[in-house]
Design a protein that fits this description.
This protein has 255 residues and is α/β, with parallel strands linked by helices. It is built from eight helices and 17 strands.
């Protein structure tokens, strides 16, 4: 199998070659390119490889500026740190989209999928592409949201994973997070800013001062026809959802 690598970061290219040869030492590296200009020159003088591994943002531009103007028939596995090109990648001849830093196991799966697609019919091919889009979008969404907060304590720094947070609460000028045991941690910034950093599938702002984690909900009670109260893990008091938030909250917990 011949493989062409399009990657402008030397360390990333070296790591990719190491992974490939570790997976299959019979793989032939046909070339290692680092710019759009390199791609133009290389494809004018060489036959197309069995598969292409390509970064997206290169030294002199975007790889799509080359792909849109040239007839490339080799399947492409995109390897990039950018998640905003997922749909564009699969609109071209991309068959997989690996977000850096990816593992050797992820690379192996993508490579195996590439080989299997040679023997599948078109229907299966497009079904696989759709599956890839869903997985890539899911991974991109997860990677876009905050995974942890760095908390400054008198004894030093403490890492608080967002998954362990049950409640984020604004109390005047102060902002605090509570874990599922009820332990309190100081945060910086504003509630609005933190809300934009959190995964909306997990966190919901129920009123002006409280953001809750869906996994921390223990009980939901009806206060009135349009108001609900929530009991959270680690919290003695119940939290009331504003009437304007109740309809969207009901959709959120059912999503």
């Amino acid at each position: 199998m011949t493989v062409l690598i399009i990657e402008d970061e030397k360390v990333a290219a070296k790591q990719l070659m190491y992974y490939l040869l570790n997976i299959d030492d019979t793989i032939e590296i046909a070339g290692q390119l680092s710019s759009v200009a390199d791609c133009v020159d290389w494809f004018e003088e060489n036959e197309q490889p069995d598969v292409i591994f390509s970064d997206i943002e290169l030294l002199d531009g975007n790889i799509f500026s080359f792909l849109d103007k040239n007839e490339i028939i080799s399947p492409i596995i995109f390897t990039t740190a950018y998640d905003q090109y997922v749909l564009k990648a699969f609109e071209s001849i991309g068959i997989s989209y690996l977000l850096k830093p990816y593992t050797e196991e992820q690379l192996k799966k993508a490579l195996t999928k590439c080989m299997l697609l040679k023997y599948e019919n078109k229907k299966s091919y497009y079904n696989d592409i759709i599956s890839n889009i869903k997985i890539a979008l899911r991974d991109a969404a997860i990677n876009n949201y905050k995974q942890r907060f760095t908390i400054k304590l008198p004894t030093g720094l403490f890492l608080l994973p967002t998954e362990s947070i049950s409640l984020i609460q604004a109390d005047g000028v102060f902002l605090h997070a509570y874990d599922v045991s009820g332990k309190k941690f100081p945060l910086t910034g504003t509630l609005l800013h933190l809300e934009s950093q959190l995964n909306p599938l997990v966190f919901f702002k129920i009123n002006r001062s409280d953001i809750i984690n869906i996994h921390a909900i223990e009980k939901i009670k009806n206060e009135t026809s349009d108001r609900l109260s929530i009991q959270l893990k680690g919290q003695k008091e119940c939290f009331t959802i504003s009437s304007s938030k109740t309809p969207s909250f009901r959709k959120w917990i059912d999503s």
